[in-house]
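User: Some background: our group keeps a shared notebook of sequences we're curious about, and every so often someone picks one and asks for a predicted structure to add to the entry. Today it's my turn. The entry only has the sequence so far, pasted here. Could you supply the structure so I can complete it?
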Amino acid sequence: MTEKEPLYELEFIVRDYELDLQGIVNNSVYQQYLEHARHEFLFSRNIDFARLHEEGKDLVVIRAEIDYKSSLKSRDRFKVTLNTYKEGNLKVVFEQNIYRLPDLKPVVKAKIIGACLFNGRPSRPEDVMDVSLLGLNS
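Assistant: Of course. Here's the predicted structure to add to the notebook entry:
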């Protein structure tokens, strides 16, 4: 199975303080990379977390599935890619991958499932924001 072209991608570089005693990126840091890429993607689509929250609308992660394929080390360059789709009426899925650069070695494969809340209650994504901005496909 070949991967489709990503909807969004963001490049990073590993910082020394992200490493554990083994000299590799700590597993929890990968979740921060994934989250930052999702936030930057949303911001690039004019979806502002702070503004949504002020309107009583929140986007929350309800499940994270992460497969660690290989490790990154200090000063490694890498990119996070992202695609989206809807799952059922309430869930938005972010398929994200991390690849080391320049060789594109797979590092992480993740499926992050989110939901939308309006005044604390589950809501359909289209009732919370313009979902066309997310590039959702069913």
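Suggested note for the entry: The two ends are 18 Å apart (CA to CA). Strands lie at 8-13, 57-68, 77-87, 91-101, 106-118, 121-123.
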